[in-house]
Design brief:
mainly alpha
Length: about 220
């Protein structure tokens, strides 16, 4: 029974993959747009993480300054209580001072880690924005070449379904690789279209010259 279900599952998955491959062949720009939207969504999630990390850094900063304030306050109170000979107040204020100083040390470490993490997230976010912008520009270039070569009528010949898999792109590197392959194939189609047109024109001219020579 399990084997039968496994075969049914494999058949359904194979049919799904074939359908996606056919969609890529018919309209790769539409598929590219889909993956670009995924990248935009990923970039937006990172932007929100950057904002949250920034707020967390600000909160750590406020907590650190508050602990520093009370540590200094208790230190001053220890001095006053010591001069006044109030041992119980000295002990209490000293205990509080130690508590806030330990809290300051812990908050300082957390603040440093949070600041470092924020810097890394900001750098990653900027990198993702640049790559996303580059991909959008490359998409515009591909669309231009596609229009010139009338690729929307010939995509079933341009895109070889064996060149791509149906898996989603998980990284910007995979997306860039997809763009490079697609650009190469559409560019090749563009040049073939241009060469075909030039050869056809030359052939027409040669026939015309031959007919004039014969006459």
């Amino acid at each position: 029974m399990a084997t039968i279900f496994s075969r049914i599952k494999d058949t359904v998955v194979a049919d799904l993959h074939e359908a996606i491959d056919q969609k890529e062949q018919k309209n790769p720009i539409a598929v590219l747009n889909h993956y670009l939207r995924k990248c935009e969504s990923e970039t937006e999630r990172v932007r929100k993480l950057v904002e949250r990390q920034f707020l967390l850094k600000e909160e750590f900063g406020r907590e650190y300054r508050e602990a520093e304030h009370y540590a200094n306050k208790r230190k001053y109170q220890v001095e006053i209580a010591t001069k006044a000979g109030e041992k119980e107040l000295v002990e209490f204020a000293l205990k509080e001072q130690c508590y806030y100083e330990e809290r300051m040390a812990r908050l300082k470490e957390s603040l440093q880690q949070t600041s470092q993490q924020l810097t890394e997230l900001e750098q990653k976010y900027e990198e993702m924005k640049h790559k996303l912008k580059d991909m959008k520009l490359k998409r515009m270039e591909l669309m231009g070449r596609e229009n010139v070569a009338h690729a929307h009528h010939r995509m079933n010949k341009v895109v070889d379904h064996t060149s791509y898999t149906s898996k989603a792109f998980d990284t910007f590197e995979e997306m860039e690789s997809y763009l490079d392959r697609l650009e190469h194939q559409i560019t090749s189609s563009y040049h073939r279209h241009t060469i075909d047109a030039q050869i056809a024109q030359l052939e027409k001219q040669l026939k015309s010259e031959e007919s004039h020579t014969v006459s």
